[in-house]
Design goal:
The termini are far apart. The N terminus is likely disordered. The protein has twelve helices and twelve strands. The chain has two domains: about 140 residues, 60s Ribosomal Protein L30, Chain: A; about 180 residues, PurM-like C-terminal domain (Phosphoribosyl-aminoimidazole Synthetase, Chain A, domain 2, Alpha-Beta Complex). Its EC number is 6.3.3.1. It is an enzyme of class 6 (ligase). It catalyses: 2-formamido-N(1)-(5-O-phospho-beta-D-ribosyl)acetamidine + ATP = 5-amino-1-(5-phospho-beta-D-ribosyl)imidazole + ADP + phosphate + H(+). It is found in: Cytoplasm.
């Protein structure tokens, strides 16, 4: 072996992994993670340990605490963030997708962990992603107790990345929400979405880029901003809003409207023998849904099983709780309305359906 060959041995850095950049990213994100602390995690190791710690003695206030868990990602929306160079909002989407699933059963969000996979660690970029996740955790009322940043050179391009997360919540056993609580005559309350949220972006990207030949920087009059700004609008986080409803009203069930659309997700909480009817005429979907439908000549039913069509969360409450529920959400700045009702199933083949035409 020549001296030249001997002196150029392989290394992790030569393979494309920059450990020092990873350490720098951790230092940059610490201030944001600290903002998410709940009393149950304060003083328990902090960022940088092998595992995040949560003081479970806090659960002694429950008679029979049930832990609720969920995991999710953001999908192809991350590619839009990459193209636009905007990294501090995608974390809101991640928290929403995880914690709004957890709150559906009535669980209080407790803590979350994240996984960020990158082609090359850019410390400031990773820190911006974590900043968004931390801000989302604050909005959801949970702690960010840890995570992982993985550098995958050769598998991902230098600017490519993806995010995923897992969360845990807790609910009293006799307070679990779901199908067994729903009764005939209950009202279906819709909560407005902030836009597309984080589902259906493969369809959206195909329509606006491949079919309509639009660009992210293109100003869209109907949006009052660029296409990119509209598509990157963060997913609304409903966790604390839903918990507020559980304190002020006798909520029977929630439904988080994600992949599959409103009808399919609502059907998941409708018991045998009952049926949910949602009247489209009670709201007008935002301009972005109209654009996707028209630009791609997408059939209404296809849109409705792919996108949220302006409704991000559903609450099913007794009819006599409607006024209090709407007032609670209005006080929290959430646009909401009665969109339907629970009836006998009759000859209906599914647990939920949309009727009528959307308002103009």
């Amino acid at each position: 072996m020549s001296e030249t060959t001997a002196g150029t041995g392989a290394s992790y850095a030569a393979a494309g992994v920059d450990i020092e950049a990873g350490d720098r990213a951790v230092e940059l994100m610490k201030e944001w993670v600290k903002k998410t602390q709940r009393p149950e995690v304060a003083g328990l190791g902090g960022l940088g340990g092998f595992a995040g710690l949560f003081d479970a003695s806090a659960l002694k206030r429950f008679e029979r605490p049930l832990l609720a868990s969920a995991t999710d990602g953001v999908g192809t929306k991350v590619d839009l963030a990459r193209q636009l160079g905007v990294y501090d909002t995608i974390g809101h989407d991640l928290v929403a997708m995880v914690m709004d699933d957890i709150v559906v059963c009535g669980a209080e969000p407790l803590f979350m962990t994240d996984y960020i996979c990158v082609g090359k660690v850019h410390p400031e970029r990773v820190a911006a992603i974590v900043k968004g996740i931390a801000e989302g955790c604050v909005l959801a009322g949970c702690a960010l107790v840890g995570g992982e940043t993985a550098e995958h050179p050769g598998l991902l391009g230098p600017d490519d990345f993806d995010v995923a997360g897992a969360g845990t919540g807790v609910v009293e056993a006799d307070r679990v929400l779901g199908p067994d609580r729903i009764r005939k005559g209950d009202a279906v309350i819709a909560m407005a979405s902030s836009g597309l949220h984080s589902n259906g972006y493969s369809l959206v990207r195909h329509v606006v880029f491949d079919r309509a030949k639009m660009t992210l920087g293109q100003q869209v009059e109907e949006f009052g901003r660029t296409l990119g700004e509209e598509l990157l609008e963060p997913t609304r986080i409903y966790s604390l809003d839903c918990l507020a409803l559980t304190r002020t009203t006798d909520v029977h069930a929630f439904s988080h409207v994600t992949g599959g659309g409103l009808a399919a997700n609502l059907a998941r909480v409708i018991p045998e023998g009952l049926h949910a009817t949602v009247d489209r005429s009670t709201w007008a979907p935002g301009a972005v849904f109209d654009l996707v439908g028209k630009a791609g000549r997408v059939e209404r039913l296809e849109l409705e099983k792919t996108l949220n069509m302006g409704v991000g969360m559903i609450a099913v409450v007794p009819e006599d709780s409607v006024d209090v529920a709407l007032a609670t959400l209005a006080d929290r700045g959430v646009d909401s309305w009665v969109a339907g009702e629970i009836t006998d199933r009759g000859d209906h083949a599914t647990g939920a359906e949309l009727t009528g035409d959307y308002a103009k």
